[in-house]
Amino acid sequence: MTTAVASDAPAGCRPGAFGNATHLICRACGAKSPLGPFYACLECFGPLEVGYEYPEITREQIERGPKSIWRYAPLLPVPADIASFRSTDPGFTRLVDARNLADDLGLRQLWVKDDSGNPTHSFKDRVVAVALSAARELGLQVLACPSTGNLANAVAAAAARAGIRSVVLVPSNLEQQKILASAVYDTTLIAIEGTYDDVNKLASEIAGEEDGWAFVNVNVRPYYAEGSKTLAYEIAEQLGWRLPDQVVIPVASGSQLTKIDKGFTELIKLGLVEEKPYKVFGAQATGCSPIAQAYRAGHDVVAPVKPDTIAKSLAIGNPADGPYVLDVIRRTGGKIADVDDATVVTNIRRLARTEGIFGETAGGVTLGVTAKLINDGDLDPNAETVFINSGDGLKTLDAVADQVGPKITIPPRYDAFEDFWKGNN
Length: 425
Prior knowledge:
Elements: E1 21-26, E2 32-33, E3 48-52, H1 59-63, E4 95-97, H2 99-105, E5 109-114, H3 124-138, E6 142-146, H4 150-162, E7 165-171, H5 176-183, E8 188-192, H6 196-209, E9 213-215, H7 221-226, H8 229-238, E10 246-250, H9 255-269, E11 279-285, H10 290-297, H11 322-332, E12 336-339, H12 341-355, H13 361-375, E13 384-389, H14 414-423
Parallel strand pairs: 5-13, 6-7, 6-9, 7-8, 10-11, 10-13, 11-12
Antiparallel strand pairs: 1-2, 1-3, 4-5
Helix pairs in contact: 2-12, 3-4, 4-5, 8-9, 9-11, 10-11, 12-13
Protein backbone atom coordinates (compact mmCIF):
# COMPACT_ATOMS: atom_id res chain seq x y z
CA MET A 1 0.00 0.00 0.00
CA THR A 2 1.35 3.43 -0.91
CA THR A 3 1.54 5.74 2.05
CA ALA A 4 3.09 9.19 2.03
CA VAL A 5 5.45 9.84 4.91
CA ALA A 6 5.10 13.10 6.79
CA SER A 7 8.38 14.97 6.70
CA ASP A 8 7.74 16.88 9.90
CA ALA A 9 7.28 14.15 12.50
CA PRO A 10 7.67 15.39 16.11
CA ALA A 11 11.19 15.50 17.53
CA GLY A 12 12.28 12.09 18.74
CA CYS A 13 9.67 10.26 16.67
CA ARG A 14 10.53 7.95 13.81
CA PRO A 15 9.70 9.03 10.23
CA GLY A 16 6.11 8.18 9.34
CA ALA A 17 5.04 7.86 12.99
CA PHE A 18 1.79 9.61 12.16
CA GLY A 19 1.28 8.34 8.61
CA ASN A 20 -0.16 10.96 6.29
CA ALA A 21 -0.87 13.41 9.13
CA THR A 22 1.28 16.50 8.71
CA HIS A 23 0.12 19.01 11.30
CA LEU A 24 -2.46 20.03 13.89
CA ILE A 25 -4.94 22.76 13.03
CA CYS A 26 -7.11 24.92 15.28
CA ARG A 27 -10.81 24.30 14.74
CA ALA A 28 -11.58 27.85 15.88
CA CYS A 29 -9.03 30.12 14.14
CA GLY A 30 -7.34 27.78 11.64
CA ALA A 31 -3.81 28.33 12.97
CA LYS A 32 -1.48 25.40 12.32
CA SER A 33 0.74 23.66 14.89
CA PRO A 34 3.31 20.87 14.60
CA LEU A 35 2.31 17.31 15.47
CA GLY A 36 2.85 16.47 19.13
CA PRO A 37 1.05 15.99 22.48
CA PHE A 38 -0.89 19.23 22.07
CA TYR A 39 -4.63 19.84 22.21
CA ALA A 40 -5.12 23.61 22.53
CA CYS A 41 -4.21 26.35 20.03
CA LEU A 42 -1.41 28.64 21.17
CA GLU A 43 -3.09 31.55 19.35
CA CYS A 44 -6.66 31.35 20.69
CA PHE A 45 -6.81 28.26 22.97
CA GLY A 46 -9.26 26.64 20.54
CA PRO A 47 -9.32 22.83 20.14
CA LEU A 48 -6.86 21.23 17.73
CA GLU A 49 -7.51 18.49 15.19
CA VAL A 50 -5.29 16.54 12.84
CA GLY A 51 -4.54 17.77 9.31
CA TYR A 52 -3.31 15.54 6.45
CA GLU A 53 -1.75 15.52 3.03
CA TYR A 54 -3.26 12.45 1.48
CA PRO A 55 -1.74 10.62 -1.49
CA GLU A 56 -4.01 8.79 -3.91
CA ILE A 57 -5.91 6.12 -1.96
CA THR A 58 -8.07 3.53 -3.71
CA ARG A 59 -10.92 1.29 -2.60
CA GLU A 60 -8.87 -1.74 -3.60
CA GLN A 61 -6.01 -0.75 -1.27
CA ILE A 62 -8.41 -0.44 1.64
CA GLU A 63 -10.21 -3.71 0.86
CA ARG A 64 -6.89 -5.59 0.96
CA GLY A 65 -6.36 -4.44 4.56
CA PRO A 66 -7.17 -6.28 7.81
CA LYS A 67 -10.76 -6.68 9.05
CA SER A 68 -10.31 -3.89 11.59
CA ILE A 69 -9.96 -0.11 11.64
CA TRP A 70 -6.37 -0.54 10.48
CA ARG A 71 -7.63 -1.13 6.91
CA TYR A 72 -8.10 2.67 6.95
CA ALA A 73 -4.57 3.37 8.26
CA PRO A 74 -3.72 5.75 5.37
CA LEU A 75 -6.62 7.94 6.52
CA LEU A 76 -5.58 8.01 10.20
CA PRO A 77 -2.67 9.55 12.19
CA VAL A 78 -0.97 6.16 12.55
CA PRO A 79 2.12 4.57 10.97
CA ALA A 80 1.81 2.28 7.96
CA ASP A 81 2.91 -0.69 10.12
CA ILE A 82 0.26 -0.07 12.80
CA ALA A 83 -1.28 -3.54 12.38
CA SER A 84 1.98 -5.12 13.59
CA PHE A 85 1.64 -3.60 17.07
CA ARG A 86 -0.33 -5.15 19.92
CA SER A 87 -3.76 -3.53 20.10
CA THR A 88 -7.34 -4.72 20.53
CA ASP A 89 -7.77 -4.42 16.72
CA PRO A 90 -11.28 -2.93 16.91
CA GLY A 91 -13.69 -2.10 14.15
CA PHE A 92 -15.33 -3.55 11.06
CA THR A 93 -18.41 -4.21 13.17
CA ARG A 94 -21.57 -5.36 11.47
CA LEU A 95 -24.03 -3.12 9.63
CA VAL A 96 -27.37 -4.78 10.30
CA ASP A 97 -30.18 -4.61 7.71
CA ALA A 98 -32.90 -3.80 10.29
CA ARG A 99 -36.01 -4.73 8.34
CA ASN A 100 -38.17 -5.58 11.36
CA LEU A 101 -37.34 -2.30 13.07
CA ALA A 102 -37.81 -0.37 9.81
CA ASP A 103 -41.33 -1.81 9.50
CA ASP A 104 -42.03 -0.97 13.14
CA LEU A 105 -40.91 2.64 12.62
CA GLY A 106 -42.40 3.10 9.14
CA LEU A 107 -39.03 3.51 7.37
CA ARG A 108 -38.25 2.22 3.89
CA GLN A 109 -34.64 1.22 4.67
CA LEU A 110 -32.89 1.23 8.04
CA TRP A 111 -29.43 0.01 8.99
CA VAL A 112 -28.03 -0.36 12.51
CA LYS A 113 -24.29 0.16 12.81
CA ASP A 114 -23.82 -2.14 15.79
CA ASP A 115 -20.63 -1.15 17.58
CA SER A 116 -21.38 -3.38 20.56
CA GLY A 117 -19.33 -5.95 18.62
CA ASN A 118 -16.04 -4.24 19.45
CA PRO A 119 -13.57 -5.93 21.87
CA THR A 120 -14.90 -4.15 24.99
CA HIS A 121 -18.37 -3.82 23.49
CA SER A 122 -18.47 -0.13 22.61
CA PHE A 123 -17.23 2.27 19.93
CA LYS A 124 -14.60 3.57 22.38
CA ASP A 125 -12.20 0.83 21.30
CA ARG A 126 -11.81 2.69 17.99
CA VAL A 127 -10.70 6.00 19.47
CA VAL A 128 -8.51 4.42 22.13
CA ALA A 129 -6.64 2.33 19.55
CA VAL A 130 -5.66 5.49 17.63
CA ALA A 131 -4.76 7.33 20.86
CA LEU A 132 -2.62 4.39 21.97
CA SER A 133 -0.68 4.58 18.71
CA ALA A 134 -0.04 8.30 19.26
CA ALA A 135 1.04 7.69 22.85
CA ARG A 136 3.45 4.96 21.77
CA GLU A 137 4.97 7.04 18.98
CA LEU A 138 5.36 10.05 21.30
CA GLY A 139 7.07 7.93 23.95
CA LEU A 140 4.37 8.39 26.62
CA GLN A 141 4.31 5.62 29.23
CA VAL A 142 0.89 5.81 30.94
CA LEU A 143 -2.46 5.52 29.16
CA ALA A 144 -5.17 7.33 31.11
CA CYS A 145 -8.64 8.84 30.84
CA PRO A 146 -11.58 10.38 32.62
CA SER A 147 -14.61 8.34 31.63
CA THR A 148 -18.34 7.72 31.89
CA GLY A 149 -17.60 3.99 31.66
CA ASN A 150 -17.11 2.73 28.13
CA LEU A 151 -13.87 4.65 27.64
CA ALA A 152 -12.54 3.30 30.94
CA ASN A 153 -13.19 -0.25 29.71
CA ALA A 154 -11.46 0.44 26.39
CA VAL A 155 -8.40 2.15 27.91
CA ALA A 156 -7.92 -0.58 30.51
CA ALA A 157 -8.17 -3.35 27.90
CA ALA A 158 -5.96 -1.62 25.31
CA ALA A 159 -3.24 -0.92 27.88
CA ALA A 160 -3.35 -4.51 29.10
CA ARG A 161 -3.00 -5.77 25.54
CA ALA A 162 -0.13 -3.34 24.82
CA GLY A 163 1.62 -4.14 28.08
CA ILE A 164 1.68 -0.60 29.48
CA ARG A 165 0.30 0.99 32.64
CA SER A 166 -3.18 2.53 32.70
CA VAL A 167 -5.04 4.83 35.06
CA VAL A 168 -8.77 5.49 34.66
CA LEU A 169 -10.89 7.99 36.56
CA VAL A 170 -14.67 7.48 36.76
CA PRO A 171 -17.61 9.01 38.67
CA SER A 172 -18.23 6.94 41.81
CA ASN A 173 -21.93 6.49 40.93
CA LEU A 174 -21.17 4.74 37.62
CA GLU A 175 -23.02 1.55 36.69
CA GLN A 176 -21.45 -1.39 38.57
CA GLN A 177 -21.13 -3.39 35.34
CA LYS A 178 -18.86 -0.74 33.82
CA ILE A 179 -16.75 -0.41 36.99
CA LEU A 180 -16.14 -4.17 37.10
CA ALA A 181 -15.50 -4.31 33.35
CA SER A 182 -12.61 -1.86 33.85
CA ALA A 183 -11.22 -3.28 37.08
CA VAL A 184 -10.94 -6.79 35.66
CA TYR A 185 -8.03 -5.65 33.43
CA ASP A 186 -6.06 -4.76 36.59
CA THR A 187 -5.97 -1.08 35.70
CA THR A 188 -5.51 1.59 38.36
CA LEU A 189 -9.20 2.45 38.69
CA ILE A 190 -9.98 5.56 40.74
CA ALA A 191 -13.60 6.45 41.61
CA ILE A 192 -14.21 10.19 42.01
CA GLU A 193 -17.00 11.70 44.11
CA GLY A 194 -18.64 13.94 41.50
CA THR A 195 -20.03 14.13 37.97
CA TYR A 196 -18.12 13.33 34.79
CA ASP A 197 -17.39 17.02 34.40
CA ASP A 198 -15.73 17.03 37.84
CA VAL A 199 -13.70 13.97 36.83
CA ASN A 200 -12.69 15.58 33.54
CA LYS A 201 -11.50 18.73 35.34
CA LEU A 202 -9.32 16.64 37.66
CA ALA A 203 -7.90 14.73 34.68
CA SER A 204 -6.90 18.00 32.99
CA GLU A 205 -5.07 19.05 36.17
CA ILE A 206 -3.22 15.73 36.36
CA ALA A 207 -2.32 15.91 32.65
CA GLY A 208 -0.74 19.31 33.30
CA GLU A 209 1.34 18.06 36.22
CA GLU A 210 2.45 14.54 35.27
CA ASP A 211 5.05 13.93 32.54
CA GLY A 212 4.76 10.90 30.29
CA TRP A 213 1.01 10.49 30.64
CA ALA A 214 -1.33 10.18 27.65
CA PHE A 215 -4.83 11.15 28.73
CA VAL A 216 -6.51 9.84 25.62
CA ASN A 217 -9.32 12.42 25.63
CA VAL A 218 -7.23 15.32 26.96
CA ASN A 219 -3.63 15.80 25.80
CA VAL A 220 -3.77 13.33 22.87
CA ARG A 221 -7.41 14.12 22.08
CA PRO A 222 -6.74 15.30 18.48
CA TYR A 223 -5.51 11.78 17.59
CA TYR A 224 -8.07 9.96 19.76
CA ALA A 225 -10.98 11.76 18.09
CA GLU A 226 -9.83 10.65 14.63
CA GLY A 227 -10.73 7.06 15.52
CA SER A 228 -14.43 7.91 15.22
CA LYS A 229 -13.95 8.61 11.50
CA THR A 230 -13.69 4.87 10.99
CA LEU A 231 -17.42 4.55 11.70
CA ALA A 232 -18.05 6.71 8.62
CA TYR A 233 -15.57 4.76 6.50
CA GLU A 234 -17.11 1.42 7.47
CA ILE A 235 -20.69 2.55 6.88
CA ALA A 236 -19.76 3.76 3.39
CA GLU A 237 -17.75 0.64 2.52
CA GLN A 238 -20.40 -1.74 3.88
CA LEU A 239 -23.07 0.07 1.84
CA GLY A 240 -21.01 -0.64 -1.29
CA TRP A 241 -18.93 2.56 -1.24
CA ARG A 242 -21.77 5.05 -0.99
CA LEU A 243 -23.17 7.35 1.69
CA PRO A 244 -26.56 6.97 3.42
CA ASP A 245 -29.18 9.70 3.09
CA GLN A 246 -29.41 10.34 6.81
CA VAL A 247 -27.65 9.16 9.96
CA VAL A 248 -28.67 9.39 13.65
CA ILE A 249 -25.81 9.54 16.17
CA PRO A 250 -25.73 9.57 20.00
CA VAL A 251 -24.14 12.72 21.42
CA ALA A 252 -22.09 13.03 24.61
CA SER A 253 -19.04 15.25 23.98
CA GLY A 254 -20.17 15.43 20.34
CA SER A 255 -16.84 14.20 18.97
CA GLN A 256 -18.29 11.05 17.39
CA LEU A 257 -20.85 13.06 15.40
CA THR A 258 -18.38 15.63 14.12
CA LYS A 259 -15.84 12.98 13.13
CA ILE A 260 -18.39 10.87 11.27
CA ASP A 261 -19.16 13.98 9.26
CA LYS A 262 -15.43 14.54 8.73
CA GLY A 263 -15.07 10.94 7.57
CA PHE A 264 -17.87 11.28 5.00
CA THR A 265 -16.34 14.54 3.76
CA GLU A 266 -12.90 12.97 3.36
CA LEU A 267 -14.29 10.03 1.37
CA ILE A 268 -15.95 12.47 -1.03
CA LYS A 269 -12.80 14.59 -1.44
CA LEU A 270 -10.69 11.49 -2.11
CA GLY A 271 -13.17 10.24 -4.70
CA LEU A 272 -13.83 7.04 -2.75
CA VAL A 273 -17.59 7.70 -2.77
CA GLU A 274 -19.84 9.72 -5.05
CA GLU A 275 -20.64 13.16 -3.69
CA LYS A 276 -24.23 13.48 -2.49
CA PRO A 277 -26.12 15.40 0.20
CA TYR A 278 -26.62 13.67 3.54
CA LYS A 279 -28.21 14.77 6.81
CA VAL A 280 -26.69 14.30 10.27
CA PHE A 281 -28.99 14.04 13.30
CA GLY A 282 -27.96 14.02 16.97
CA ALA A 283 -29.54 12.25 19.95
CA GLN A 284 -29.33 13.20 23.62
CA ALA A 285 -31.12 12.21 26.82
CA THR A 286 -33.41 14.93 28.16
CA GLY A 287 -31.60 14.78 31.52
CA CYS A 288 -28.37 15.85 29.80
CA SER A 289 -29.27 17.69 26.62
CA PRO A 290 -27.25 20.92 26.53
CA ILE A 291 -26.70 20.81 22.75
CA ALA A 292 -30.35 20.00 21.97
CA GLN A 293 -31.37 22.91 24.19
CA ALA A 294 -28.97 25.26 22.38
CA TYR A 295 -30.28 24.05 19.01
CA ARG A 296 -33.90 24.70 19.97
CA ALA A 297 -33.01 28.15 21.27
CA GLY A 298 -31.12 29.00 18.08
CA HIS A 299 -27.89 29.56 20.00
CA ASP A 300 -24.33 28.98 18.78
CA VAL A 301 -22.97 28.62 22.32
CA VAL A 302 -23.81 25.59 24.49
CA ALA A 303 -24.57 26.35 28.15
CA PRO A 304 -23.38 23.58 30.54
CA VAL A 305 -25.97 21.56 32.49
CA LYS A 306 -25.82 19.18 35.46
CA PRO A 307 -26.58 15.67 34.15
CA ASP A 308 -29.51 13.68 35.55
CA THR A 309 -30.22 10.67 33.34
CA ILE A 310 -29.86 6.90 33.29
CA ALA A 311 -27.89 7.28 30.04
CA LYS A 312 -24.63 7.83 31.90
CA SER A 313 -22.42 7.21 28.86
CA LEU A 314 -23.96 10.38 27.35
CA ALA A 315 -23.96 12.34 30.62
CA ILE A 316 -21.46 15.07 29.74
CA GLY A 317 -22.90 18.37 30.89
CA ASN A 318 -20.23 20.53 29.25
CA PRO A 319 -19.63 18.90 25.83
CA ALA A 320 -16.31 19.85 24.25
CA ASP A 321 -17.59 19.56 20.67
CA GLY A 322 -20.97 21.19 21.34
CA PRO A 323 -20.60 24.19 18.97
CA TYR A 324 -19.19 21.96 16.24
CA VAL A 325 -22.15 19.58 16.55
CA LEU A 326 -24.45 22.54 15.97
CA ASP A 327 -22.41 23.52 12.91
CA VAL A 328 -22.66 20.03 11.37
CA ILE A 329 -26.37 19.48 11.90
CA ARG A 330 -27.24 22.97 10.64
CA ARG A 331 -24.96 22.65 7.60
CA THR A 332 -26.34 19.26 6.60
CA GLY A 333 -30.00 20.10 7.30
CA GLY A 334 -30.25 17.72 10.26
CA LYS A 335 -31.46 18.28 13.81
CA ILE A 336 -30.62 17.32 17.39
CA ALA A 337 -33.38 16.18 19.78
CA ASP A 338 -33.75 14.44 23.14
CA VAL A 339 -35.95 11.87 24.87
CA ASP A 340 -36.69 11.15 28.53
CA ASP A 341 -35.46 8.13 30.49
CA ALA A 342 -38.74 6.21 30.21
CA THR A 343 -38.52 6.49 26.42
CA VAL A 344 -34.90 5.31 26.58
CA VAL A 345 -35.92 2.09 28.33
CA THR A 346 -38.85 1.54 25.95
CA ASN A 347 -36.51 1.78 22.99
CA ILE A 348 -33.82 -0.47 24.47
CA ARG A 349 -36.54 -3.12 24.58
CA ARG A 350 -37.82 -2.17 21.11
CA LEU A 351 -34.39 -2.69 19.53
CA ALA A 352 -34.01 -6.02 21.31
CA ARG A 353 -37.52 -7.19 20.42
CA THR A 354 -37.33 -6.30 16.73
CA GLU A 355 -33.68 -6.98 15.80
CA GLY A 356 -32.18 -9.11 18.58
CA ILE A 357 -29.73 -6.32 19.43
CA PHE A 358 -29.36 -5.47 23.13
CA GLY A 359 -28.10 -1.90 23.16
CA GLU A 360 -27.02 0.08 26.18
CA THR A 361 -28.87 3.18 27.32
CA ALA A 362 -27.19 5.29 24.61
CA GLY A 363 -28.75 2.95 22.03
CA GLY A 364 -32.15 3.52 23.64
CA VAL A 365 -31.57 7.27 23.39
CA THR A 366 -30.63 7.06 19.71
CA LEU A 367 -33.55 4.86 18.73
CA GLY A 368 -35.95 6.92 20.84
CA VAL A 369 -34.82 10.11 19.10
CA THR A 370 -35.02 8.37 15.71
CA ALA A 371 -38.68 7.51 16.38
CA LYS A 372 -39.36 11.04 17.63
CA LEU A 373 -37.79 12.60 14.53
CA ILE A 374 -39.95 10.39 12.30
CA ASN A 375 -43.11 11.30 14.19
CA ASP A 376 -42.25 15.01 14.00
CA GLY A 377 -41.61 14.82 10.25
CA ASP A 378 -37.90 15.62 10.55
CA LEU A 379 -36.61 12.27 9.24
CA ASP A 380 -37.67 11.28 5.73
CA PRO A 381 -39.27 7.80 5.99
CA ASN A 382 -38.35 7.07 2.38
CA ALA A 383 -34.67 7.95 2.77
CA GLU A 384 -32.01 5.36 3.58
CA THR A 385 -31.23 5.74 7.29
CA VAL A 386 -28.41 4.55 9.55
CA PHE A 387 -28.40 4.83 13.31
CA ILE A 388 -25.48 4.07 15.60
CA ASN A 389 -25.76 1.58 18.46
CA SER A 390 -22.62 2.55 20.35
CA GLY A 391 -22.54 -0.03 23.15
CA ASP A 392 -23.75 -3.29 24.69
CA GLY A 393 -26.83 -3.52 26.91
CA LEU A 394 -25.03 -5.91 29.26
CA LYS A 395 -23.22 -2.81 30.56
CA THR A 396 -26.45 -1.09 31.66
CA LEU A 397 -28.59 -3.94 32.97
CA ASP A 398 -30.04 -1.77 35.74
CA ALA A 399 -31.98 0.20 33.11
CA VAL A 400 -34.20 -2.80 32.32
CA ALA A 401 -33.88 -4.82 35.53
CA ASP A 402 -37.39 -3.92 36.74
CA GLN A 403 -38.92 -4.13 33.26
CA VAL A 404 -38.16 -7.68 32.09
CA GLY A 405 -37.78 -11.13 33.62
CA PRO A 406 -39.31 -14.62 33.61
CA LYS A 407 -42.97 -14.79 32.51
CA ILE A 408 -43.66 -17.19 35.37
CA THR A 409 -41.86 -19.47 37.85
CA ILE A 410 -43.17 -23.03 37.89
CA PRO A 411 -42.19 -26.39 39.46
CA PRO A 412 -40.30 -28.86 37.20
CA ARG A 413 -43.44 -30.73 36.00
CA TYR A 414 -45.02 -30.92 32.54
CA ASP A 415 -48.54 -30.29 33.85
CA ALA A 416 -47.38 -27.00 35.35
CA PHE A 417 -45.81 -25.98 32.04
CA GLU A 418 -48.93 -27.10 30.12
CA ASP A 419 -51.20 -25.02 32.34
CA PHE A 420 -49.07 -21.95 31.73
CA TRP A 421 -48.66 -22.56 27.99
CA LYS A 422 -52.36 -23.15 27.33
CA GLY A 423 -53.25 -20.03 29.27
CA ASN A 424 -50.93 -17.87 27.20
CA ASN A 425 -51.44 -19.16 23.65
